[in-house]
Specification:
Strand 1 and strand 2 form a beta hairpin. The chain is 48% helix and 15% strand. It contains 18 helices and 12 strands.
Length: 448
């Protein structure tokens, strides 16, 4: 076992050496690889075929220039990315992120995580991620359209419903997906609905896709609490972020009898002890595209804290749904001290390694993002099914499928953790489950 662990450390060191300056990617690789020693001991053929080393190297990395013109006629140059990480289980699948923080390391970490997340769903999809260092905030619809058209003019040649199927992520919603799909359709002269997901239901999108990630996180929490003899009903909850994932996580929490009392955005933290009024949050964020501080204008009893720390708000359930590394060890300790019993990640890698250790050591039910937030990409795969069959499913049927998928993900992660000697540890269960599914396919295909 010591020899296997030493080999894994060398693999991690090699990834760090060959990918300098990409700290988020290093973190993601370390988090997964450090749990795989028991797998290599049980299945030595995966070491022989160097599966970990191969999974850590993307199959393709595309970087391109995105020139566009704003409403004043000024020319801007952004950088676009698409990293196809692994296609052993199906076509590349993963979102596009438009945000100033986007760089190659961020995209690689997201694509690496996506590979395991997609495998865990049980759907036939590989892992990828992409985006650009473009900020759609404050831009007009025409400016966003021109950027999306320029972005897709390069990216389209690398896409296809059997090749690579992007979706949305931070900064990319139905508006952006519409502009991207329109340009793809124009260039290719094909109405290839399955080439993008997250579309409007009026032109090929899936009902429930908008809600899927948030709903799925809550379904995962429901299953984690169920095996502990508990439930969501009556619990006080905090949800970081106030975008798509956070909004619909809060909505499903309310449906199941819980009370969300805090959410946030990049400017600050909103605390409403009477319970967050979702209609107001949806109006501010989805219609007005404003800041969460405006909430207190309609609900003066609520409190807004500029640059506040949402994790200091006492709660039973905490859902980090904003961005990577937002929940550190100090904040995790605050959650533990305040009596939190469950944490599930709606965002990708929102908890730092130190924060994860604090939560696991405290015995809190902790659902890592690659399992807990997989409902979004699972529903994207359901959208691909509908597009392929020229079908449209009802909201109720699609949500039922989502619920079943999240129950299966929880069951499979839970059982895998038990099989490898770490009962209740969803980090180990999710990492090993995803790895085994990808590794089996890679061995079957030979050295490619």
């Amino acid at each position: 076992m010591a020899e296997i662990e030493a080999r894994i450390r060398r693999i991690i060191q090699d990834v760090e050496r060959r990918n300098p300056g990409e700290s988020e990617f290093h973190q993601a690789v370390t988090e997964v690889a450090s749990t795989l020693a028991p797998v290599l001991r049980k299945y030595p053929q995966y070491a022989e075929h160097k599966i970990i080393e191969r999974i850590c190297e993307p199959e393709r990395q595309i970087i391109f220039r995105v020139p566009w013109q704003d409403d004043r006629g000024e020319v801007h140059i952004n950088r676009g990315f698409r990293v196809g990480f692994n296609s052993a289980l199906g076509p590349y699948k993963g979102g596009l992120r438009f945000h100033p923080s986007v760089n190659l390391g961020i995209v690689k970490f997201l694509g690496f995580e996506q590979t395991f997340k997609n495998a865990i769903t049980g759907m036939p999809i590989g892992g990828a991620k992409g985006g650009a260092d473009f900020d759609p905030k404050g831009r007009s619809d025409d400016e966003v359209m021109r950027f999306c058209q320029s972005f897709m003019t390069e990216l389209y040649r690398h896409l296809g419903e059997f090749t690579d199927v992007p979706a949305g992520d931070i900064g990319v919603g139905q508006r952006e997906i519409g502009y991207l799909f329109g340009q793809y359709k124009r260039i290719t002269n094909r109405y290839e609905s399955g080439v993008l997901t997250g579309k409007s239901p009026s032109w090929g999108g899936s009902l429930v896709r908008k809600e899927a990630t948030g709903y799925g996180v809550v379904y995962f929490v429901e299953e984690m609490l169920k095996v502990r003899g508990d439930s969501i009903e009556g619990k006080t909850c905090i949800v970081s972020g106030s975008g798509n994932v956070a909004i619909y996580a809060m909505e499903k929490l309310e449906m199941l009898g819980a009370k969300p009392v805090a959410c946030s955005d990049s400017s600050g933290v909103l605390h409403d002890p009477r319970g967050i009024q979702l209609d107001t949050v949806k109006r501010i964020k989805e219609v007005e595209r404003g800041r969460i501080a405006a909430y207190v204008e309609a609900h003066p009893h609520a409190h807004y804290f500029p640059a506040g720390n949402i994790w200091s708000v006492p709660c039973d359930i905490a859902l980090p749904c904003a961005t990577q590394n937002e929940l550190d060890d100090g904040s995790a300790r605050m959650l533990v001290e305040n009596g939190c019993i469950a944490v599930a990640e709606g965002a990708n890698m929102p908890t730092t390694p130190g924060g994860v250790r604090v939560l696991l050591d405290a015995g809190i039910a902790y659902g890592p993002g690659k399992a807990a937030n997989a409902g979004g990409v699972a529903t994207s795969a359901l959208e691909m099914q509908q597009n392929a069959s020229r079908d449209a499913w009802t909201f109720e049927y699609t949500e039922k499928r989502l619920h079943e998928i999240m129950q299966n993900i929880h069951r499979d992660c839970y059982q895998t953790a038990e099989e490898f000697g770490c009962p209740g540890n969803y980090v180990v269960g999710a990492n090993i489950l995803g790895f085994l599914r990808v590794a089996e396919a890679m061995v079957a295909f030979g050295l490619i």
